[in-house]
Amino acid sequence: MRRDFAGAALAGAVTVLGFAPFFVFPLPVLTLAALFHWCRRAEPSRAALFGFAWGMGCFLVGVSWVYVSMHDIGGMPLPIAAVATLLFCAVLALFPALAGYALARLRRDVAWRDALVAAAAWTLSEWLRGWIFTGFPWLSLGYAQTPPSPLAGFAPILGVHGVGLLAALLAAALAFAPRRRATAALFALTLTAGFALRQIAWTEPVGAPLSVSLLQGNIEQSLKWDPARLRLSLDTYAQLAAENPATLTVLPETALPLLLENVPLQTLDALTAHGAVLLGVPMRNRDGGYANAGVALSGPLPAGTVQSYAKSHLVPFGEYVPTGFAWFLELMHIPMSDFTPGPARQPALELAGQKLAPDICYEDAFGEEIRMALPQATLLVNLSNTAWFGDSLAQPQHLQIARMRAMETGRTMLRATNTGMTAMVLPDGSVAAVLPPFSAGALRVQAQGYQGATPYVVLGNYVSVLAALAGLIAAVALKRRADR
Length: 484
Description:
By secondary structure, the chain is α/β, with parallel strands linked by helices. Helices cover about 45% and strands about 15% of the residues.
């Protein structure tokens, strides 16, 4: 049995190869099938342990960059950072444990029925992980199915959780189905449908393509908030903007480490000299606090117009302090760690003839929040500073998340980051252009705006989550009837 638990942990760790930057997209289906196999033949308590072991393997490898942010960048003592990372991954592993427990508890040794229970339980556990404790949907199964996976064709209809539901169903069919022809038919039908759906354009272009310059300053996190190095940030971005003029220039999250009101006017004039600017910068709000903001500048100040977006989904421990955890932030060196959240719904920013829906940092990991700005918005723009995570898996994984958002919404996604990965993603999820990470530069692209609404924009996660919930409720009812 111990070997089985070790095997489950190893399967979870190997699952990470299915995500960026490795893209072995069939692998998560196979490793999840192995987990389902172990859980189905175990008692509920042991099945939960199998799920927990699988989750620990997956998250300890897949989000190891959490340790990097706390110790290597944040300066937290090694033992405390190691324990904090272990506890964080243990909390995330509770969700696969819950799915394993549900499968074992509701099994009836009827292959097709148990397969549906497994897929439904897995989908609901991932949805809960993206919601409870403000949510952390990183490494959800559906993210591994970006192109070239045929399952990517379902993204504009069902979203990441619907894609994950289908992937989990295929995994369960491999684990349970005694009839190989039925399993092969299910695979053939699902993959063929996904390929066919990839040929559909769910949205249509609006307006002319827009020349955009996405700036990547590559300012080390240890230098960014050093007052003596302030001029480095100001000059770097002013120079990049001057050398790469465009109708729209986009700077990453907190690109200028000053409140907007303290940014030198000559710097703002330099940035807006050739066109409109979307600038990541902290901004004071009316109640005296400050927000992590994206500020749209159209024309030189003070005559030019100013619009703004305030980040609404803040990062616990990084952008606000949960009650009772002030001591945690004292161990890390995080400037401006008490932001005020913006409203959940904010209007699109009208800039350079397009309507921009900005999101900041890991807000683009929450598809339900991104769709709030649609269908009004014609372009999605992500401003990020992933310097906190060093040279790790965080950068390519975050870009893969952006690819899923582009497919779900049928919109071009523009990404401006401090250290990587600055990119333009097309509505079909393909990466049109990307800058090398950990280099200073500007990505100059022609970005096309889009209008219209995909089925996912209209319905969100309701279809996939309600389908999974209905399946699980039906399984519970059948289980109770059989036990009478």
